[in-house]
Design brief:
With about 80 residues, the chain is an all-alpha fold. It has three helices and no strands. The termini are far apart. About 0% of the residues are buried.
């Protein structure tokens, strides 16, 4: 039993080699493997610096106030429609 376990663990490291064998490997209807292995995402590539500066605080506050007013108008319209039904 121990020999079977050890041989299974030893062959586990060769899984990619065994998967490429024609009789043991992938089924006949499996798609073909790509020629090149998939690359990793470029995690160390940083986006370029912005050409424009961020919004000034006064402009940001103005936009937030406009969005809050629009939200309140939508909530009031939805409440009046729900009360009318």
């Amino acid at each position: 039993m121990a020999a079977l376990l050890l041989s299974t663990l030893a062959l586990g490291g060769c899984a990619t080699s065994i998967a490429d064998m024609p009789l043991v490997g992938t089924p006949a209807d499996a798609p073909a493997r790509p020629k090149e292995a998939g690359g990793y995402l470029p995690v160390h590539d940083l986006p370029p610096n912005r050409d424009q500066a961020a919004l000034p605080p006064a402009e940001q506050a103005k936009i937030q106030a406009e969005l809050a007013a629009a939200r309140d108008r939508q909530a009031a319209a939805a409440a009046s429609n729900a009360a009318a039904k």
